[in-house]
Each structure stands twice: as structure tokens, then as C-alpha cells.
From TrEMBL:
It comes from Terrimonas ginsenosidimutans. SUPFAM superfamilies: (Trans)glycosidases, Beta-D-glucan exohydrolase, C-terminal domain. One of its GO terms (molecular function) is hydrolase activity. InterPro entries: BXL, Fn3-like, GH, Glyco_hydro_3_C, Glyco_hydro_3_C_sf, Glyco_hydro_3_N, Glyco_hydro_3_N_sf, Ig-like_fold. It holds the Pfam family Glyco_hydro_3_C. This is Glycoside hydrolase family 3 C-terminal domain-containing protein. Belongs to the glycosyl hydrolase 3 family. The keyword Hydrolase applies.
Length: 876
């Protein structure tokens, strides 16, 4: 017999029953929604989802950090991750050489393999994090804003290291390989990652004026022949899924609101169907810097109408004002839907909204991260990037039987320098010092830093003179919030110069979180003399240095770099020193501070220490503490991350001169992301090796070359000028006249140049025909011989010039091929020259076109005239 249920309890049962049925119905209904159907096309799914969203929800998904929309089951998504030469801003990943170094390899096949490895590591780290309860956050996503295919037109640009050099063809070959490696097979159902061609377009510094710069004198020929070819190829040949518009204006219109760039060229002429993302803060620049908009609403409408689909900002989205812009009639919702369609198609193509079980890339195991295979790839590329510029009297390679050699210089034992910029943090790094030590018996390598990168003085630290309540050092108080409020997480005494980082999952102190924390460092200093002391250091995060309550420096940037902050003190007077710090956004936190008095460098003492040592390896150059993106650098010769001159810093030049004067055999290992004017150094150095920023295995690669375990084959992807005077005064002038190998022929070391430990000979080339017609292809066959005693690799380069083109480039690369030959062997290099190899800008036609006439085909081992042979061909 059924038991009677009280009325109130029956009501509760009914409510539960109805709720369960509603949940089941909703779940069933959700499964049947078209946007949930993985069998449909990404476009069909995106259109269905858009039809179910409110305007406010749509706008949220056009922000680079897009929040979740629970009612539709849409997860949080972040568009901004970096993979410039490995997964950036992550720990324990493989760090490959900086792109400018990869360009020196002239090996686009290896580049594609490397970026396939990078995409594996990105997929593996992303899914591992999500499965462990983490989230899709900035710098951990499946959208990566790589590659940078801007042309490195001027060596003063600090971000040129991120590019593949000054040549449009080399940049194109490398960029296409990057995209193919990152995005995966074109016929796969899901994209491995979404790559991004940046920064579109005509963008290569200066850093200090990029938010206000207006380029209204760029010649059409420079635009089409130099600044646009790589972008066109990435769109049409690599099917890149994202294009990032640049900060500056082109012909009075910001690039992210430039209809000519985004509509006429990108979409109508090139057929780009995918999404455009703004550089970070480029939309807000419309009203804060460019003054083409008066309000955030107007700026947002202007960006979307031009075709910028996703906005990136540091804080305060202009796109959040799109509903207001609709109300004001500045834009209609249909235009917003058009942009959002491209955004959502990208997300569906990643499989980000589908179960992991049907997305093959989701099964990528975490074991691929920094695997032995990837470590070997990093070493192989580092070796191939090494570019030997000078080797007087065949000083190199060195003998392993050397009794003792000296390794000195600011980059000799510097791990972060090797990582370059936009980098991850590797598990381990082989510095140049460690690499050389691995080649010789213990005790046979003398090491001394000798100089700093820039400064002519060394700092005698006063850190030991700091006191707090009678205890030596700083009192350091940490909070697990950014406001330095509430109960501290821990208070400790710091007795050594501050050198703290969260890289590698390191805490600033026990119990302090890796993100969202703050710190206060307090101490007193009693001056022993009346003198000037300097604080040296910098931070990644929010940073302020105060003395007696006076703020000496305050940074709120997303990153800062080491600099010096002088302060005069009086003997016997006590000064209160405070450092306030907070971790910023999703960036790794770093803090380095020391202070003391500066003393002149005594090279005489260094020379005394080198008695009995004949060979000195000086590892110097630059680092990403000096050249980079929008940096507040306060050293002579540097401004905003760019350089104001291209000479080697004076202190390093003086050190090299002193070593030479002392009779030493000097090997200069130059680490930099850009060309250095090495005119004096060719006299003071016996050998010069351009080592770039070689990644986690960069030091091993340097040592392998110095001791002959690897025969160098790198070629310069940029021109090395004789001095700064060869450059135009106006860095903001985007005219190419007198710049790059294509418009000057008086370089110290030309584009395409690089020595080997063996001797190659180039024979007479043969063309398959003396003429070429549309849809035809020429074949160039060139005999190459290794006449030396070692196996080696040569890069055969092919340049083309239109004979009667007085306004055009002196020569332009159109093909290259790497050839590996054993000693005494010969082979034919066979290169294809399709009809469009002869395409140049027609001043009368106002477009890129193959113009009939006579052309010169130049082939050889560098772009220098003396290294090239010539053939002529008739183009019909």
C-alpha cells in the first residue's frame, strides 16, 4: 500500500522532479544545438552561435581575454600567447635561437620542423594545465602571435631580432615555414594552433614613437616590393589564420583602422578570410595618441568597421563600448557579427569548444616538452646559425690541446642573454663559458667577466652596509595580494643583492605565490663618505625605489630593464631605503637591485691576470637588456629599446684594444640581435664569430664552432654596416635608399656573407633557357666544389636585377639552396626560378608585375658583387 506523503513534502518532491527533467531537457537540447555539432562546418557552427547571443555577449568575445558565457557553455578564451622561438613566458620549455639567428641558417626546412615542435609543446602544456585545473590565460593558449615578418630595414630597431632579416624573399621563406609548422597539416580537421602574421604593415621602429608615428611618404615601390611580400605569402601560401595590425599610421590612418590595408589589400586583393587582431593598445591609441577618435566608442567602431576583429589591451577595452557605439549609430550590429564570425570560426577550428576525445592534438603528451628530440633541434639550429665573419691566419678552429685559454666578457657566462626576447625559460642552459669548458681539461680555462655591456665603471657593492633594526640587509615583507595589505605571507631578512625571479616556478620567498603578490624591502644606510652612490637594477612588474621618502624611480610598465639611478649622499648621514614591488599581469616577476659606488675599470689589472695566456675569447655584444621592445633604457647609445648608434659599446671596444695591444690572439664572439658596426674590431680581433642569441644550447654551439666540431655555415640575414654614418640620420624615414644590401654596396660584411673552415668554388652556371614566358619556369644549374680538407655546407644564393631599372634595387634575392659536400667533392646545385621571380613594381602599371625585358641573374656565395657571377635572360 502506498504511503501517504504530506503536502509540503509532496510539493518539494514535485519541484525536484521538475528541476531534474528541466536539466535533462536542457542538456539534451544543448547537445542538439547546431553550434555543438562537430560534424558541421566551423562557419555554420559560428553562425548558429552568434544567432543565440546578445550584443553584450558578442562584444565580450571580441576581447583578447574573452570571459566565459556559462548559459551557452562557452569557456573562457585568451587570444594572446607567444611562440616566437619556443613557447614564451612558460617554464621548462625548449628555447630555440632567436629568429634572426634562425634566419642566418638559411634553412627553412629545419625552421618548419622546429615550429612543429613548438606547436607540440604549446598543445601539451595547454592541455596539461587545463586537466590539472588551470585556465586558458594570457600566454597559455592555442592562439600564438607569431611570426614577426616585418622587414629589418634599419639595424637601430630593437625588435629586429624578432624578424628574419632585411630581405623580403628570405623573410617569406622563413615565415611560411613558421606558419606551416605551427598550424599543422592544412587538410586536418582541426588546426594545431592559430599562427599570426605581424605587424601589418610597414612597421620597423622606432620604438619610442610607434604610438604616434605617421608614415605618409612611403613610396609605393618600397611598400609593394619590400614591406608587403611576406604578408602576402603568409596569407596566400601558408593560409595564416591571424594577421596583427600595427600601431602606427600609414598615410594618416592607423593601421588598425586603415581600410586600404585591411580591406582593399588584405581582403579584396589577397583574399584573406580569417581574423585580424590589434597590437596591444592599438585601438586605444586612436584617441590617446593618434587623436583620430575623440572617444572609446568612436575608436571601437572605427576599428571594427575597418576589419579589426579582436582588440588587445593592457587595461580598459575600447571594444567594451561597442554597444554604446551601436546606440549612437556609429556602427550596426551586423558589422559586429561579421567580425565575430571570423573570431568564432577560429575557435571552432582549434577544437577548443569540442571534447578533447575528438581533437587529436589534445592527446599530445607532456613528455614532448623539452624532449631529447627538441633539445637536439635547438642545438642543431644554434650550430647552423653561427656565422663566422673573420678568421685571420686560420686561428680557428682552436686545438683541444691548448694549455690554457681565457674566456672573458659580459656575455661569457650569461644565461638570459642566450634566451633572447619573447622567450620561455629552459630547464638548463649551456653558456659560452660552460661550452668552452666542456672542450678542455679542468683548470685550462681562465674566466673573468672583465667588463659590463655598456658602462665604463664597475660597482663596488655597499649592500653589506645596509641595516634594519640592527640586522644586516633588507627587511623583506611579502603579501599574497598586490596591495601590500592585510596579514603578510612572510617576513625575511635579505643579506645579498636582490636577484629574484618567478621563472622556473621559483618563489620570491617561502609561501609567496607566483602571481598576484607584492613586497616591501626596507633598510637604512649610513654613508661612509660624501659621494655619489648608484642603485643598479630593474624589474618586471610594478616597481618603485625611494630614498628618505623621495621616489627616485617608479615603473608601472609591463616590463623594465636594468638601469642606474644615481644619488648623492653625505658622510655620516643615514638614509632610509625602500623598494616597493608587485607582480604585474601574467608576466613572470623579476627583481634585481644592488647599490654602491662606481670605480673606473682597470684593464692593466686584467692584462696582468692574463700573463702566460695567448688566446682570449671575448664574449660581448649586446643583450635583450639593451635592445628590445619599448624599453626605458638609460644608457648612452640606446633609446626606448632601439639604438642611437650601431657601434659596439665603448667599454667593449677599449677592452678589445687593450687585449690586442698586449699581444693576445683575440677571438670576439659577438652576441646580438642586430648588426654591429665592427670596423675597429676587425683590426683588434683575429677572429669574429656572430653568435646572435642562440637559445638554450647557444653556448654549446659556440664552443662546437670554436673547436671545429661543427664547421660554420651561417650567412648574414642583415647587412653589417661600417659605421653609423652609413645610415640616414632620420630613423623614422622608411625610404630604403642607401639601406640594406638591395640599395647599398659598401658594407663591412654584406648580406649573405659567412665564412667556412673549408674552401668552396662556384662554377659556371647554366640556364635551361635563354628566355622565359608566362607560366614557364627556368632552371639554374650551378657546379659547387669543396676544395678544402673538411666537410662543409655552402649556401648558393641567386639574385635578380632588371637591366634598365635605374630606380629599382641593385639586386634582389629570388632563390637560395644549401649544399653539403664532403672534402674534395663536387655537386650541382639546381634551383628553380618561376616566372614570378622576375616580378617587380611597375611605376607605370602601379602594381607588382613581370615587365618584359632583359634581366640579370646573379649567383654566388653572398650579395657582394665580388662573390657573384652573372647570366642574362630575356623575359617575355
Amino acid at each position: 500500500m502506498m504511503k501517504k506523503i504530506p503536502g509540503s513534502l509532496l510539493y518539494r518532491y514535485l519541484c525536484v522532479f521538475i528541476a531534474i527533467n528541466l536539466l535533462c531537457c536542457n542538456a539534451s537540447f544543448s547537445q542538439e544545438l547546431p553550434f555543438r555539432n562537430a560534424a558541421l562546418t566551423s562557419e555554420a557552427r559560428a553562425k548558429d552561435l552568434i544567432s543565440r547571443m546578445t550584443l553584450q555577449e558578442k562584444v565580450l568575445l571580441m576581447q583578447d581575454q574573452s570571459p566565459a558565457i556559462p548559459r551557452l557553455g562557452i569557456k573562457k578564451f585568451n587570444w594572446w600567447s607567444e611562440a616566437l622561438h619556443g613557447l614564451a613566458n612558460n617554464n621548462g620549455v625548449t628555447v630555440f635561437p632567436e629568429p634572426i639567428g634562425m634566419a642566418a641558417s638559411f634553412n627553412d626546412s629545419l625552421v618548419q620542423i622546429i615550429f612543429d615542435a613548438v606547436s607540440d609543446e604549446t598543445r601539451a602544456r595547454y592541455h596539461e594545465t587545463i586537466r590539472n585545473g588551470g585556465e586558458n590565460k594570457r600566454f597559455l593558449s592555442l592562439s600564438v602571435w607569431t611570426p614577426n615578418v616585418n622587414i629589418f630595414r634599419d639595424p637601430r630597431w630593437g625588435r629586429g631580432q624578432e624578424t628574419y632579416g632585411e630581405d623580403p624573399y628570405l623573410t617569406t621563406r622563413m615565415g611560411v615555414s613558421v606558419v606551416k609548422g605551427l598550424q599543422g597539416p592544412p587538410n586536418a580537421k582541426y588546426r594545431k594552433l592559430l599562427a599570426c602574421a605581424k605587424h601589418y604593415a610597414v612597421h620597423s621602429g622606432p620604438e619610442w614613437s610607434r604610438h604616434e608615428l605617421n608614415l605618409n611618404a612611403v613610396k609605393p615601390r618600397d611598400l609593394w616590393e619590400t614591406y608587403l611580400p611576406a604578408f602576402k605569402a603568409l596569407v596566400q601560401d601558408a593560409d595564416v589564420r591571424q594577421v596583427m595590425c600595427a600601431y602606427q599610421r600609414l598615410d594618416d590612418e592607423p593601421c588598425c583602422a586603415n581600410n586600404r590595408l585591411l580591406q582593399n589589400i588584405l581582403r579584396e586583393q589577397w583574399g584573406f578570410k580569417h581574423l585580424v587582431v590589434s597590437d596591444c593598445g592599438a585601438i586605444t591609441d586612436f584617441y590617446t595618441s593618434h587623436k583620430v577618435s575623440s572617444t572609446p566608442s568612436h575608436a571601437a567602431a572605427k576599428g571594427v568597421l575597418a576589419g579589426t576583429d579582436v582588440e588587445c589591451v593592457w587595461e580598459g577595452y575600447a571594444y567594451a563600448n561597442l554597444p554604446d557605439a551601436v546606440k549612437k549609430g556609429l556602427i550596426n550590429e551586423k558589422k559586429i557579427d561579421e567580425s565575430l564570425l571570423r573570431v568564432l570560426i577560429g575557435r571552432f577550428e582549434l577544437g577548443e569548444m569540442d571534447p578533447d576525445g575528438i581533437v587529436p592534438w589534445a592527446a599530445t603528451p607532456a613528455s614532448v616538452i623539452n624532449s631529447k628530440k627538441h633539445q637536439q633541434l635547438a642545438l642543431d639550429m644554434a650550430r647552423q646559425s653561427m656565422t663566422l665573419l673573420q678568421n685571420n691566419n686560420n686561428l680557428l678552429p682552436l686545438s683541444r690541446s691548448a694549455k690554457k685559454i681565457a674566456v672573458i666578457g659580459p656575455n661569457a657566462d650569461n644565461e638570459p642573454m642566450l634566451w633572447g626576447n619573447y622567450n620561455g625559460t629552459p630547464v638548463s642552459t649551456v653558456t659560452i663559458l660552460k661550452g668552452i669548458q666542456s672542450k678542455l681539461k679542468p683548470g685550462n680555462v681562465f674566466y673573468n667577466k672583465a667588463t659590463d655591456l655598456v658602462e665604463n665603471k664597475v660597482t663596488e657593492t655597499y649592500f653589506s652596509k645596509l641595516l634594519h633594526e640592527g640586522k644586516k640587509g633588507f627587511k623583506a615583507t611579502y603579501w599574497n595580494n598586490k596591495e601590500r595589505s592585510g596579514q603578510p605571507a612572510i617576513t625575511v631578512q635579505v643579506t645579498e643583492p636582490l636577484k629574484l625571479t618567478t621563472a622556473g616556478q621559483h618563489e620570491f620567498a617561502s609561501g609567496v605565490k607566483l602571481e598576484g603578490f607584492s613586497a616591501l624591502y626596507e633598510a637604512e644606510f649610513t654613508a661612509p663618505e660624501t659621494e655619489e652612490v648608484v642603485f643598479k637594477g630593474g624589474a618586471t612588474g610594478e616597481f618603485e625605489l625611494l630614498v628618505n621618502g623621495q621616489s627616485l624611480v617608479k615603473y608601472t610598465n609591463w616590463r623594465t630593464v636594468p638601469a642606474r639611478f644615481p644619488y648623492k649622499v653625505e658622510r655620516g648621514k643615514t638614509y632610509k631605503i625602500e623598494i616597493r614591488f608587485a607582480q604585474s599581469n601574467n608576466w613572470q616577476a623579476n627583481l634585481e637591485i644592488d647599490f654602491g659606488k662606481e670605480n673606473p675599470i682597470d684593464f692593466g689589472l686584467l692584462i696582468d691576470q692574463l700573463k702566460g695566456i695567448d688566446v682570449v675569447v671575448y664574449a660581448g655584444g649586446l643583450s635583450t637588456l639593451l635592445e628590445g621592445e619599448e624599453m626605458p633604457v638609460s644608457f648612452p647609445g640606446f633609446k626606448g629599446g632601439d639604438r642611437t648608434d650601431i657601434e659596439l659599446p665603448e667599454v667593449q671596444r677599449n677592452c678589445l684594444k687593450a687585449l690586442k695591444a698586449a699581444g693576445k690572439k683575440v677571438i670576439f664572439v659577438n652576441c646580438s640581435g642586430s648588426a654591429i658596426a665592427l670596423t675597429p674590431e676587425t683590426e683588434s680581433c683575429d677572429a669574429i664569430l656572430q653568435a646572435w642569441y642562440g637559445g638554450q644550447s647557444g653556448g654549446q654551439a659556440v664552443a662546437d664552432v670554436l673547436f671545429g666540431d661543427h664547421n660554420p655555415s651561417g650567412k648574414l640575414p642583415v647587412t653589417f654596416y661600417r659605421n653609423t654614418k652609413q645610415l640616414p640620420d632620420n630613423f623614422e624615414d622608411y625610404s630604403l635608399k642607401g639601406k640594406t644590401y638591395r640599395f647599398m654596396n659598401d658594407a663591412l660584411f654584406p648580406f649573405g656573407y659567412g665564412l667556412s673552415y673549408t674552401r668552396f668554388a662556384i662554377g659556371e652556371g647554366r640556364l635551361s633557357s635563354s628566355f622565359i614566358k608566362q607560366n614557364d619556369q627556368l632552371t639554374l644549374t650551378v657546379p659547387v666544389s669543396n676544395n678544402g680538407k673538411r666537410a662543409g655546407t655552402e649556401v648558393l644564393q641567386v639574385y635578380i636585377r632588371r637591366t634598365n631599372d635605374t630606380e629599382g634595387p641593385l639586386k634582389t634575392m629570388r632563390a637560395f639552396k644549401k649544399i653539403e659536400l664532403m672534402a674534395g667533392k663536387s655537386a650541382n646545385a639546381v634551383l628553380s626560378l618561376p616566372y614570378n621571380s622576375f616580378e617587380f613594381y611597375g611605376e607605370q602599371q602601379l602594381e607588382m608585375k613581370v615587365i618584359p625585358g632583359q634581366y640579370e641573374i646573379l649567383y654566388g656565395t653572398s650579395s657582394a658583387d665580388k662573390d657573384l657571377r652573372k647570366l642574362t635572360v630575356s623575359v617575355q
